[in-house]
Structure formats: structure tokens, C-alpha cells
Specification:
With about 280 residues, the chain is α/β, with parallel strands linked by helices. The protein has helices at about 15-20, 55-70, 95, 115-120, 135-145, 160-165, 195-205, 220-230, 255-260; strands at about 105, 125-130, 150-155, 170-180, 205-215, 235, 270-275. It has a single domain (about 15-50, about 55-275), classed as Vaccinia Virus protein VP39 (Rossmann fold, 3-Layer(aba) Sandwich), CATH 3.40.50.150. It is built from nine helices and seven strands; from the N terminus they run αααβαβαβαβαβαβαβ. A seven-stranded mixed β-sheet has the order 3-2-1-4-5-7-6, with helices on both faces. Strand 4 (about 170-180), helix 7 and strand 5 (about 205-215) form a beta-alpha-beta unit. The longest helix has 14 residues, at about 55-70. The chain is globular. The protein binds S-adenosylmethionine (SAM). S-adenosylmethionine (SAM) binds near residues 47, 132, 179, 180 and 257. S-adenosylmethionine (SAM) binds near residues 131 and 178.
């Protein structure tokens, strides 16, 4: 589609700039995870905590809403030999939402406008969001309050940890990854969320028939997503021509998408269904 320069625009990807300034995070001590397993590439995080403080109103919304709406990180993350989480740390989604309904997980919801809009449009569905940026969590909880939403719950820790340790196989009906950090530089590509190990983990948590929806404004990442997802035999591309889908009318324009438009970027949407 659009011909665009390969070099990242300066305003893009605060996370990447933080890595530039702070350097790559290094592991201290024994390079094993909390379960005593050797650290793998999944421990290369897909984010660097951004600066920016939550406002007083956001902090108040988190403090008051967390007990009802929050999903705390698992204190320990035992994993069975077959890689599935031990039942003790699994989040019971029925208990969490107080009912049984189809569940959508949004990974990296930013300020949560998209999640709140979808939750308001679909009161018959439940929405679980994961975001590590505290002001974004506060922003979403304020929206949840203002709109009186009862079908939203929030995790403010690494979505990879949430998926790996706390969500049961086949428990999700839909997963959304909209405008994930593109990690423009080649040496940072390992930080991209959309990679075969994450897709494989995510697929195990998605029920058969469930849908994985993505969007990005960074064309090379769009093609990378298409390549990784097309290579997964348990997924079927919902695009008629096996590439991208038209922009779903229901998907609100997010802050990051608007920024992409200002920078002259296009938008690429993808939708894949789990078939096996
Ligand atoms: C470029 S922003 C896009 C936000 C939003 N989806 C939008 O379109 O406006 C990517 C977001 O993903 C979050 N993120 C990245 N990796 C994450 C992870 N592993 N777990 C939770 N949040 C993550 C970042 O904190 C950041 O807010």
C-alpha cells in the first residue's frame, strides 16, 4: 500500500525511546524465572514502562474500583509440566464477571477508549483489558465509572503473564491487539508482541471458533503479523484475499491510530479465527 520511509518518525513509540535512553533491561542474578525455569525469549518484555503520572482522578478511580474490577497478578505462577497454568492461580472468569458470557481480552488497551466503547456497545459480552501503563488504567476506570459499565475488568500487569499463568485454555472468545508497539528497529524486533511463541500461547487460551483481531499503522509490522499468523495452521484468515480485512466499522479510532494518521500512516486490520 503506502510507500513510507523505513526510519521511525521521532514522535513514535515512547517505549522504544526509553530503551534507547535506558538501554536494554538486563537480568540480574540467576537467569531463571519465578518457576525456576530458565528465562526464555518471552521474558524479553514487549513494553518499557512509559513515563507520565496518573492524575489524582485516575488514582482515585483505581483505588476505589480495583477491589471490584481489578485482576491482581498471580503471586506465583506455577505451571504444569504440559505448560498449562496450575488451577490455583487461574482466574475464574465466571466469578470475575459474576456471570457466564463471551469474553474478549484486549492486550495493551492504552487509554481504554476502545475497550470502554465496545463494552458499552455489547452489554451481552464481557471485556477483560490488560495494560501496564497506570494512567491508561486510570483513564479506563474513569470511563467505566462514567458509563456505568458492569462488563469490564482490568489487569495492570504483563498480558503475557496473564495469559500464561492465569487464563485457562479455551477461556477466551476474542482477543484484540490494536496498535501494539511496533518496535521499529531490527534489534528490537524481539520485543514485538506478535511472534510465534505468543501466538501459540494466545491460541491455547482462545476457544475453537474464537477470533483474534489486530491492527497496526506500521506497514512492515502489518506484513510481519500476516506472515506469523498465516503460518499458524490452527488459524484461518478471515480476509477474502488472504491478506488484510477492511477496517471494521465498529473499531473506534484510538489515540495511537490518530497519531499514525497525523504522521501519514495507513492502517492495516487483520482477523483470524481459531479453527483447530
Ligand atoms: C502503542 S500503544 C497502543 C494502545 C492502544 N491499543 C491504542 O490503540 O491506542 C501499546 C500499548 O500496549 C501496552 N503493552 C505493551 N506490551 C504489553 C504487555 N505485555 N502487557 C500489557 N500491556 C502492554 C503498552 O503499555 C502501550 O500502552
Amino acid at each position: 500500500m503506502n510507500e513510507r520511509p523505513e526510519s521511525p518518525p521521532p514522535a513514535e513509540a515512547v517505549s522504544e525511546m526509553a530503551t534507547e535512553i535506558l538501554g536494554e533491561p538486563r537480568f540480574r542474578g540467576t537467569p531463571t524465572d519465578r518457576d525456576g525455569r530458565p528465562r526464555t525469549m518471552r521474558e524479553v518484555r514487549s513494553f518499557v514502562k512509559r513515563g507520565g503520572r496518573a492524575t489524582n482522578a485516575q488514582l482515585r478511580a483505581i483505588e476505589e474500583g480495583w477491589a471490584t474490577l481489578g485482576v491482581p497478578a498471580a503471586a506465583v505462577g506455577p505451571v504444569r509440566a504440559d505448560g498449562t497454568p496450575a488451577a490455583s492461580v487461574l482466574v475464574d472468569l465466571g466469578t470475575l464477571f459474576g456471570r457466564t458470557a463471551p469474553v474478549t481480552l484486549e492486550i495493551g488497551f492504552g487509554d481504554g477508549e476502545q475497550l470502554a466503547t465496545l463494552a458499552a456497545l455489547h452489554p451481552e459480552r464481557d471485556y477483560l483489558g490488560a495494560e501496564v501503563h497506570e494512567p491508561g488504567v486510570g483513564h479506563l476506570l474513569l470511563r467505566v465509572e462514567a458509563l456505568g459499565l458492569t462488563n469490564v475488568r482490568v489487569a495492570r500487569h504483563d498480558a503475557v503473564e496473564l495469559l500464561r499463568h492465569q487464563l485457562a485454555p479455551g477461556s477466551l472468545d476474542e482477543v484484540l491487539v490494536y496498535f501494539p508497539d511496533p518496535w521499529h528497529k531490527k534489534r528490537h524486533h524481539k520485543r514485538r508482541l506478535i511472534q510465534p511463541p505468543l501466538v501459540s500461547l494466545l491460541l491455547e487460551r482462545l476457544r475453537i471458533g474464537g477470533v483474534f483481531r489486530l491492527a497496526t499503522d506500521w506497514e512492515p509490522y502489518a506484513h510481519h503479523m500476516l506472515e506469523v499468523l498465516s503460518a499458524e495452521p490452527r488459524l484461518r484468515n478471515r480476509s477474502a484475499d488472504g491478506t488484510f480485512i477492511p477496517r471494521p466499522a465498529e473499531r473506534p479510532v484510538t489515540k495511537f491510530e490518530r497519531r499514525g494518521h497525523r504522521l501519514g500512516h495507513g492502517t492495516w486490520d487483520l482477523a483470524f479465527e481459531r479453527i483447530a
